[in-house]
């Protein structure tokens, strides 16, 4: 056995075990405590645990006799890495949390323009770390500006409903019309609001447009939010219009101004289209991935809209959607210092009226030079209930399998949504063809996902611990906008390989098989087959 190649697998990876044994490799089993944990993970059905929940390999195990030639584990600590020799193949790099945690990815992509000629706003929804004062202030300004833009969109809709001929010519005429109706009382939540509100939104957005046209990298230009507007009152009025059914009064001139200004802003703001008009933001624990909050997290009950009732074990106890600034800025979140808040993609592509996301695998086989392989097969994950921005419960808005497995498909769900809530990328391409978007997959979606992944890796390249002989399989999650533009949500360092459907049973087996081809066979034969892996970048 000393002459044979030895491998160790930690975690629920029966496919890896079987494939390596078929190659004639010999497995060194984990100590009993490791086997018990591994059995616990398998029985728990949670898929691969996150590194924060996974123990390191026991040191006594690594120094005993001879180190395995190949190690596939959920986590390696610094001590483990120091024991490894050059020829040991291991499935992890150090310090990948620079892009595999929400906080790390948020910070890294903020620095992207300094490293690459790329704008993260074209592929990553705006994101801020609440525990950092500069980020928190930037978020407050962003929230206010988004509310102002959203009000312009709502004003345009109101004008379209009233009809141009019915719009008053001036604010004075609108005010007289407002007074002439006895029901138009400020005590009535649905009463129309004066044109002065639209005028304030126009003023703020016009100032912001001026800043965008003349911005410099030092950002010394005065903020459009530091105007004489009473922002607390403005936001309360906006909430009434966006969420409580209040109407908007505007003039014909204001309608034209709204239209022209939004067209100009669209040229400067890549996310104007996807951000919608309800100003929805999503709060996430910044140090976690795979849709999980910290085990034993705060789970605080607030006035914000929690995504569903009692959270399942280890599944997103802290993730919250909200439309109110004061709910984001609760002191408890600011004290923790590990929360991020991100713009929710309101105008997303749905399938049969249901939200979905895409899990896309890729492998890094080297960081110096950076070498990235993109898997040419992926899968879609559906929610259990129809998409709605009026109802923000978990079953409608979190696509993670570890979340959705706790919910039955609702009666109002379209019957064409698959019962196991999984589609292959081939099924998605067929659906796009039926929508008349047959070219979108190869011309928009795939190039967009590749570019987003490469940008995330390039801006963290100097932070990750590079090691020859290591590799790592990652799972990137994307939402798709109405225009088929992919939006990167997060990157997971331990993507689950526990199949939840017939589609994932096949794909997870294939990606593990092809990963071994890539990191083992290709070392001896550079021209061997790498299965569905495509080399997309090598410095």
Automatic annotation (TrEMBL):
Catalyses which reaction(s): L-glutamyl-[protein] + glycine + ATP = glycyl-L-glutamyl-[protein] + ADP + phosphate + H(+)
Name the record gives this protein: TTLL3 monoglycylase
Example of a GO MF term: protein-glycine ligase activity, initiating
BP GO annotations: cilium assembly; cilium movement
InterPro entries: TTL/TTLL_fam, TTLL_monoglycylase
The keyword ATP-binding is assigned to this record: yes
Superkingdom classification of source: Eukaryota
GO cellular component terms, semicolon-separated: axoneme; microtubule cytoskeleton
Main location, first listed in the record: cytoplasm
A Pfam entry, by short name: TTL
